[in-house]
Amino acid sequence: MNKRIALITGATSGIGAATARILAAHNFKLILCGRRIERLNAMADELMSQTEVYTLVFDVRDQQATARSLQSLPVDWKSIDVLINNAGNAHGLDPIQSGSIADWDAMIDINVKGLLYVSKEVIPGMTERKSGHIINIGSIAGKEVYPNGNVYCASKFAVDALTKGMRMDLYPFGIKVTGIHPGMVETEFSVVRFKGDEERAANVYKGLEPLKPEDIADVILYTLQAPKHVVLADVTIFPTAQGSASLVKRD
Ligand code: NDP
Ligand code: 8X3
Q1: Catalytic residues
Q2: Taking the CB of residue 126, how many other CB atoms lie within 10 A of it?
Q3: 78-96 in b/e burial notation, b at 16+ Cβ within 10 A?
Q4: How many CA atoms lie within 13 A of 189 on its CB side?
Q5: What is the spatial distance between Cα 229 and Cα 251, in angstroms, rounded to a whole number?
Q6: Among residues 67, 180, 178, 179, which one has the least CA distance to residue 124?
Q7: How far is the CA of 139 from the centre of ligand 1 (A)?
Q8: Taking a C-beta distance cutoff of 8 angstroms, is the pair 117, 67 a contact?
Q9: Contact 210, 189 (CB under 8 A)
Q10: 48-67 pLDDT, tens per residue?
Q11: Cα of 216 to ligand 1 centre, how many Å?
Q12: Domains of the chain
């Protein structure tokens, strides 16, 4: 069987990097995307012995750069079977009355508009071929709001809405759409949220065993291995020590 081509945004770190590793080992060709070119090159070097890897460097906030990058794919990389819309972050954790507009713009522009810009380039090929699978990485923050989560939660509620809307529009074409909604996963997420404050980021996971990015990658692989007639529409994943967006048991 031909290898399926999977495009992963945010493949330089965390959930995206773990997903690249597991898919490389399971018969997928990979298009890895991100802004940090040296990390993309390192991922490509690491995975090259297992599969073919193509890298694209662009910022998902930049619609023209996103379109240019995806349109630059060589012909034998253009038929993308799997799109994993993973790039995203939280920026800040502030009450609405003191939140920063730069943080709000970053979250809406990356998590929502970036996901749309990438999808806009990939979906036409899928509708034409009447096949494909789109996996959007949402969050428990897109199912439940928590204090100070305001704009990040809004961006992830938008991802959930877009996932449902994409499924309604694309199922007639035989295209699967899956929303994956993790709880606490220890990645660079909290370091980015707290603007490089590693101590504050480490405190988020203190006293509990958070999910690892590999736990989410395992679920993504499972989702992609479901039979043709089965789509996992919506998956929420918590660490066992988490009971809701804001309930966490610490030792
Ligand atoms: P990381 O910070 O480890 O990874 C984020 C990835 O997104 C990086 O590869 C980064 O690449 C990419 N990215 C960020 N901004 C941009 C941009 N403007 N353009 C292109 N790529 C960008 O975090 P996670 O792995 O945890 O996050 C992955 C996804 O999972 C996100 O959507 C996040 O919201 C979601 N999530 C995370 C949870 C967690 O607890 N960690 C829980 C629930 C959901 P680069 O900097 O190279 O561009
Ligand atoms: C990341 C999980 O709870 O920090 O989306 O918002 S949370």
Answers
A1: 152
A2: 23
A3: ebbbbbbbbbbbbbbbeee
A4: 26
A5: 43
A6: 67
A7: 11
A8: yes
A9: no
A10: 999 999 999 999 999 999 99
A11: 13
A12: 4-237 (3.40.50.720)
Per-residue model confidence as pLDDT tens digits over 17-35: 999 999 999 999 999 999 9
Minimum-distance ligand 2 atom for the alpha carbon of 245: 3
Relative to the CA of 10, which ligand 1 atom is closest?
9
- Which pair of structure tokens corresponds to residue 158? 């938008």
243: Cβ contacts below 8 Å, ≥ 6 apart: 249
Query: Which pTM does this prediction carry?
Result: 0.99
Asked if 175 contacts 131 with a C-beta cutoff of 8 angstroms, the reply is yes
CB atoms within 10 A of CB 187: 23
Ligand 1: lining residues by beta carbon, under 6 Å? 9-10, 12-16, 34-36, 39, 59-61, 86-89, 110, 114, 137, 139, 182, 184-185, 187-189, 192, 213
d(CA 221, CA 18): 11
166-176 tens-digit pLDDT: 999 999 999 99
Ligand sitting nearest the alpha carbon of 181: 1
Confidence check: pLDDT of 208 > 80 = yes
